[in-house]
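Section 3.1: Structural characterization of target chains.
Under the original work plan, the team committed to producing a structural model for every single-chain target entering the pipeline before any wet-lab resources were allocated. The record below documents one such target. The sequence was received from the expression subgroup and is listed exactly as submitted; it comprises 61 residues.
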Amino acid sequence: MQEILSKLFERDLEKLKTEITSYKDPSKMWHITGEIKNSAGNLCLHNCDNLQHFIGAVLGN
């Protein structure tokens, strides 16, 4: 189970890294445009917080 979770986290974090580093101007990842109601920066913060909580509180007890 640990190996599966590790691979999933690594895969998803690599996708997040690719998404965030694709912004040529880092301040743009905080912009909200059109029908998108949540910025990429905000989603990144939520993902990081959720991951820290899961690893620290859930897995780490």
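The two ends are 17 Å apart (CA to CA).
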